[in-house]
């Protein structure tokens, strides 16, 4: 059994901090800044960058993507700098959980893809870059954001092993399972052939 670098109490502190930071929604913030209306009544009703793009405002969508990716990355990097890698994994995972189930929005959040990628970039940038490239390639080929996300999550742990980052496998598996769970409705639509493409309202 691995020895924790960080005392349990500090891990709990980082878990709470990660969750609260992750609960801050870039999409909801940008919808107010750009006057886009209620995201819950637009497109899929999701708060992520893909749904913000359905408003036609590319700047708002890009800002949402950056905010949601940055919050996972920054809290993980901060935890790592202060307490170590195990704290970074805990804080980052909880930021992802906070994005998906935010306390500020009645636990109804996004799918977590941007936060997932930002977190991977922070914990192991080669894995993060490989996953970003995977998402971009699949999204460009299919024009279906959800399929790109599901495929990227599925191969993320393979990238971890291939790139010598096996210490991330535990959190990687948990993140992958949550990405699949958050996309369960998308998976059903993909199977039915009714999943909308990127930019489609």
Secondary-structure-derived class: mainly alpha
Number of strands: 0
N→C terminal distance: 49 Å
N-to-C order of helices and strands: HHHHHHHHHH
The biggest sheet, with number of strands, parallel, antiparallel or mixed sense and barrel status, is: none
Shape: globular
Radius of gyration from CA coordinates: 16 Å
Task: Tell me the helix content.
Answer: 55-70%
Query: Can you tell me the residue ranges where pLDDT is under 50 for at least 5 consecutive residues?
Result: none
How many helices does DSSP assign?
10
The averaged pLDDT comes out at 90
Overall number of domains: 1
Strand content: under 5%
Question: What labels describe this entry?
Answer:
201 residues; mainly alpha; 10 helices; phospholipid metabolism; EC 2.3.1.275
Give the gist of this structure.
The chain has 201 residues and is mainly α. It has helices spanning 8-22, 26-33, 49-53, 58-83, 85-100, 113-123, 125-142, 145-162, 169-182, 184-192.
């Amino acid at each position: 059994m691995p020895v924790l670098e960080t005392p349990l109490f500090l891990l709990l502190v980082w878990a709470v901090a990660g969750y609260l930071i992750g609960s801050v929604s870039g999409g909801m913030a940008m919808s107010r800044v750009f006057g886009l209306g209620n995201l819950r009544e637009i497109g899929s009703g999701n708060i992520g960058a893909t749904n913000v793009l359905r408003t036609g405002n590319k700047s708002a969508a890009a800002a949402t993507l950056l905010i949601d990716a940055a919050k996972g990355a920054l809290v993980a990097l901060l935890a790592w700098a202060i307490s170590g890698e195990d704290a970074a994994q805990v804080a980052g995972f909880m930021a992802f959980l906070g994005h998906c189930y935010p306390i500020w929005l009645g636990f109804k959040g996004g799918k977590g893809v941007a936060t997932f990628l930002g977190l991977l970039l922070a914990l192991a940038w080669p894995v993060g870059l490989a996953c970003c490239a995977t998402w971009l390639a699949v999204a460009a080929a299919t024009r279906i954001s959800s399929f790109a996300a599901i495929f990227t999550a599925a191969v993320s742990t393979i990238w971890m092993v291939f790139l010598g980052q096996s210490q991330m496998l535990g959190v990687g598996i948990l993140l992958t399972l949550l990405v699949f769970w958050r996309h369960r409705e998308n998976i059903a639509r993909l199977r039915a052939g009714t999943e909308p493409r990127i930019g489609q309202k």
